Amino acid sequence: MDDKALQDLRAQIQRRRTFAIISHPDAGKTTLTEKLLLYGGAIQSAGSVKGKQSDRHATSDWMEIERQRGISVTSSVLQFEYQGFCINILDTPGHQDFSEDTYRTLMAADSAIMVIDAAKGIEPQTRKLFQVVSRRGIPIFTFINKMDREARDPFALLDELETEFGIETYPMNWPVSCGATFKGVYDRPARRLLTYGDYHGGAKKLEEISADISDTARLDDLIGAHFRQELLDSVELLDGAGAEFDLEQVHRGRLSPVFFGSALHNFGVEEFLECFLKFTTTPLPRRTTEGEEIDPLDTRFSAFVFKIQANMNRAHRDRISFLRICSGRFERGKEYLHVQGEKTLRLAQPQQMMAQERDIIDEAYAGDIIGVFDPGVFSIGDSICDSAFGNTLRFTGIPTFAPEHFAVVEQIDSMKRKQFAKGMTEIAQEGAIQIFFYPNAGMEQVVVGVVGVLQYDVLKFRMKSEYGVEFRQRDLPHELIRRVRTPNFNASDFNLPSDVLWVRDVRGRDLLVFNGQWTVRWAEDKNDNLELAEFYEEI
Ligand code: G4P
Fold first, then answer.
1. Which protein residue's CA is at the shortest distance from atom 16 of ligand 1?
2. What was the pLDDT predicted at 223?
3. Could you please report the per-residue DSSP string of 205-237?
4. How many helices (H) and strands (E) does the chain have?
5. Is the Cβ–Cβ distance between 115 and 27 less than 8 Å?
6. Whole-angstrom Cα distance, residue 484 to residue 512?
7. Among the atoms of ligand 1, which is closest to the Cα of residue 145?
C-alpha cells in the first residue's frame, strides 16, 4: 500500500465513531436516536425511525410479530455523516425479553450512550445493560432526558449513578429547574446558559438564546432572580466539590459525562452530540484468543460476526450476518478467509443500513458495521479476515448468556423431521435461542433455553412461517443452567435430585439444568466429584 493510500485508510478509520444507545424502555432512546439522525440529515422528519403505531414502523422493525406487539425485537444499525465524522449507531431493543441480542450488540460498540428518564432515574433494564457495558470498560455517556417534565433533583440523580454503578460523573451541563418551569441548561465548559423556549418543538436546528453566566442582569431577565441564584449556587457547588474532568477516565469507562436535556423538544441534543463526538473514542483495538490486540489501523481487514438476522426481507427469505470491522478496509468482491469455516469466500451483497434503507456498499472501514448475505455458514463470534492474518484469528469477548427459561419442544408432524431440525438449528445459530439435547436421543425433542420468554413466540412464528413446521411446547420449571466440568460425565453415576435435567449443547458438552439455587447447592454438597461451572462464556 502506498503512502497516500495508507493515509487515506487511517483518516477514514479515525473519523469513525461507533456507539450503542441503551436505556430502559420509554426513557427516550428512539426519540434521541431520531434527533441525532436529523442532525446528520439521514432522515427528513421526526417519526421516521420508529413509531409505536403500526403505520409508523420502519427501518429496524421487520417482523410481523413486532408489528403485532408494537415492539422492536431486533437491533438495528444506522450510519450517518456529521461534521466530517462517520457515525455508526447501534440501536438496541428496549424490551427486556430480547436482552441477549442487546448484550451482543454492545460488543460491537466502542462506547455507549445511556438514556435516563429524569423522573425515574436508574431502572432495571438500565442496570442490566450498564453491567454489560461496564464489563468492557468502554466510555459511557449519560443523557438525562425529559427535563421538560417534572424530574428528580439533579444532584440526587448523579448520586444514584455514582453509588449504584460505582462510576464518577461529570455534568457537562446543568439544568435550571424542570417541568413547567424548565428554563434551560447551563453549559459548563462554555460558561453560558442556553434557555429553553417554546420554539424547540422538534426544530431541526436548535435556535437557543445563550447568555454569559456572569451577566446577572441578562440572567435575571431570562430566568428570573430566583433561578439565577439557584443556578449560581449549583455551579459553585459543582465547581468546588465535583469530580475533575479527566478524559482518560472517560475512555476507561470510569467517569461518565452527563448531559441534561429533552430529546422530544430537541433541547440540548446538538450540544450533546458535538461533545460526545469530541470525547468518545475512535475504533478500539480488539483482543484475540491468542492474547494479541488487533490495531484498527492494521491494513489487513478483519471482522467478527456479532449478530445474525433471518428473514429481513420478506420478499425473499434471506439471512444477514452483521460484522463489526475490527481492522483495515473491507472491499466488495475481494476474497476473505472465514476462519471457523476454514474457507475463503466472497461476501455477497455487503450492505450498510441507512436510516430508511439498505445500501449495497463497495467498501467499509474499521469501526463500521456491515451486513452480508449469509447462506447459513456463519455463527455468532466467527471471524472473517484477510488471508494475510493466517487461519488462527479468533476474537474474544462475544458472550453467550445463560438462558433463564426452558421448555421441551417437540415436533408434531413426524414427516417434517428434516425441516424441524433445520429450523431449530438455524434459529439457534442466530443466537436468539439455545438448543440442548437429551443424551442419546434424537432431534425430535429438544430443550430450548431462552433469556426472555417472548423468544418462544418468535420461535413458534418463525418455525411455522419460514420452515412450515409446528411444534408442541412444554414449559419447564427450571431456571438455572450449569456446565459440568467433570470429565466423562454420566448423570446416573451421581446422586442428583430427580428433577435435575441432564442435557448436551450443540458441541456435545454436558450441562445440568436446575430449578433453583438450592438444588445446585444440594447436588454439589452430595457429590464431591461433581464440578459445576457458571454458564457464561465467551464464544
Ligand atoms: P424508548 O425508545 O426508550 O422506548 O422511548 P421513546 O423514544 O419511544 O419515548 C417514549 C415516550 O417518551 C414517547 O412518548 C416519547 O415521545 C416520550 N419522550 C421522549 N423524550 C421525551 C422528552 O424529552 N420529553 C418528554 N416530555 N417526552 C419524551 P409516547 O407518548 O409513549 O409515544 P409517542 O406516541 O409520542 O411516540
1. 264
2. 87
3. S---EEEETT-HHHHHHHHHHHHHHHHHHHHHH
4. 12, 33
5. yes
6. 7
7. 23
Residues having CB closer than 6 A to ligand 1 are 23, 25-31, 51-52, 94, 145-146, 148-149, 262-265
pTM of the model: 0.81
Q: What pLDDT digit, counting tens, does each position of 389-446 carry?
A: 988 899 987 777 788 899 999 999 988 999 999 999 888 887 778 999 999 887 788 9
User: Coil, helix or strand for 275?
Assistant: helix
Distance from chain centroid for Cα 472:
32
Residue indicated by cell numbers 472501514: 365
For 174, other C-beta atoms within 10 Å of its C-beta total: 21
Going from the Cα of 147 to the center of ligand 1, the distance in angstroms, rounded, reads: 12
Cell numbers at residue 397, please?
Answer: 469477548
Looking from the CA of residue 94, the nearest atom of ligand 1 is 4
What is the CA(396)–ligand 1 centre distance, in A? 36
Using the predicted structure, report yes or no on whether residue 109 has a pLDDT greater than 70. yes
Beta-bridged to residue 77, according to DSSP, are 90
Residue reference for cell 460488543: 107
- Closest to 83 measured CA to CA, from 275, 353, 357: 275
Q: How far is the CA of 93 from the centre of ligand 1 (A)?
A: 15
Phi, psi of 305 (to 5 degrees): -85, 120
What the block records as the C-alpha cell of 458 is 418468535
Q: Which residues lie closer than 8 Å to 293 by C-beta, 6 or more apart?
A: 285, 286, 287
CB crowding 490-505: b at 16 or more within 10 Å, else e: eeeebebeeebbbbbb
